[in-house]
Specification:
homodimer; alpha+beta; four-stranded antiparallel beta sheet; disordered N terminus; disordered C terminus; DNA-binding
Chain lengths: 221, 221
Amino acid sequence: MRHGNTTLRLTECCGGRLAPFFRQHGTQIKVAPGAVIAHQGEAATKIYRVVRGCVRSTVYSQDGDRKVLQFLGAGDILGLGNAADWPASQEAVDMVVLESAPRHLLEAELAADPDLERTIRDCLAQQIASLASLLVLTAQTTAVERVKAFLQGFVARRASTSFVSLPMSRQDIADHIGLSMETVSRAFSALKAQGQIELRGANFVRLIQSADDERGFADAA
Amino acid sequence: MRHGNTTLRLTECCGGRLAPFFRQHGTQIKVAPGAVIAHQGEAATKIYRVVRGCVRSTVYSQDGDRKVLQFLGAGDILGLGNAADWPASQEAVDMVVLESAPRHLLEAELAADPDLERTIRDCLAQQIASLASLLVLTAQTTAVERVKAFLQGFVARRASTSFVSLPMSRQDIADHIGLSMETVSRAFSALKAQGQIELRGANFVRLIQSADDERGFADAA
DNA sequence: CGACGAGTTGAACTCAATCAACTCTCGTGG
DNA sequence: CCACGAGAGTTGATTGAGTTCAACTCGTCG
C-alpha cells in the first residue's frame, strides 16, 4: 500500500498573528513536566500561547482511556474554540512556558479588529485540517507506517535535517496514533533497522530522507 | 480519572443561523446519489447548505484509500473553512437538495455583520468537536462498540425513537469508523442478536434503549 | 424473470494487543 | 564513589480481534 505522508502541520498559523495581543495582555507562566494546564470539562476562562516546550491535548473517556489529540509547540494557541468548557485537558509534556490572557479580553479585541476574527477563523480551520490528517493517519494500515507518518509530521514542523527532540513518551505517541506502547517501540526499532531513522537515546530522532518520500497531502481546510 | 462524557453532537448549530443568508443569496440545486458536489483539491468558490438528504465528506489518499470524515444532514454547511481549496470531496449519499451561494458574498456579509462571524466560529468549533469525537470513537476498542457508538451518534441527530433511515452503505460506515465492510456487517448482526438494535431491511435501524445507555454517549449540553 | 449489486456469513490468516521478562538510564542515598 | 531502585523503553511469546478472500443470500430494477 502506497501512502503519502500525512502532513500534520498545524499551527504557528495564527499564533504569530496573535503575538501582539499576548504581548500586551499576557502574563508569562511556567509549567512543570506532566502538570495539567487546564482540565477537560473545566470552565475555559483563559487562552494560552505556547512560548516554549510541548503541550499535549488529551481527551479522557469514562474508563480512563486516553486519546492524545495533538501536540502543541511554540507559537500554538490553546483555547480558541469558544466553548464554555475545555473540550480536552491540556498537559505539559516537558518544561513549558506559556503566555496566558483572559478570554474576555480577546473577545473585546475581536469586536474592535475584524482582521483578528479572520485570523482566528484561519486558525480554527487549520485545527480542523490537523484533526482530519490525524484521522487519515489513524486509518493508515500498518503500525510502522503510522509511526513513520507521525514522525514525519512532527519533524516537518521543526524543519530540521538533523536530530530532533521527541519530548513525549512512547505512551504519548501510542495514545496519539492509536497503538500500544509496545507496538510503537517495535515500530521505532523496525524503522531504525530499515535505516529510515536514526536514534540518539530514546528521545532524539533523525529522519533519513528516502527516495520515495514523495509529498502527500496538502492540508488546509 | 473522572472526566465528562465526549459529546458527539455536531451541526445544525450555525446552519440555522445562516438560513437567512442562503434564503437571500442562495440558489437551490439537486444532486443525484453518488454524485460529487465538490472535488477534494478543487478551488472552493461556493458554500452550500444541505436542505435535504445526506452528504459525506471524504478524503482520498493517493492509492485510493477512502476516509469518510463526516456525514452531513439537513441544515449543515459545507465550505466554511476559508481555505482556497476543498480539503475533502463532498459527495451525495442519497438524493440531496442543496442551497449554494458564492463564497465572496458570505465574506461581504461577514464584514457587515459581526454576529455572523461569531456564528461561523461556533460552527467551526463544533466541527472540531465532531472530529475529536470521531478520533475518540476510533480509539474505542471493539468493532461492535464502535458501530454502536456510531449509530447512537447518528440517530441522536434525528432524535427519533423509531426506525431511522441509514442512507449510507456499509462501506461508507466502514470508511468512517475505520473498519472493513464485513466487520461492520458482522457488528450489525451481533447488535441485532443481542437485541440492541432492530433492523428493517439493511437501511433502517431502531436503537433499543438499554439500561446502561444513559451514561455512555448521552450528549446533553 | 433474471441479473446485478449490496449485504451477510464462513474459514483461514495476520497483525497488533497483551502479558511478561529484561535492559538502560538516571537520580538518590549509603 | 558505587549500589540501589524506579521508571521508561525494548524485546519475546502468546493470543485474539479484525482482515481478507470467498461463497452465498437478498432485494431491486431492468
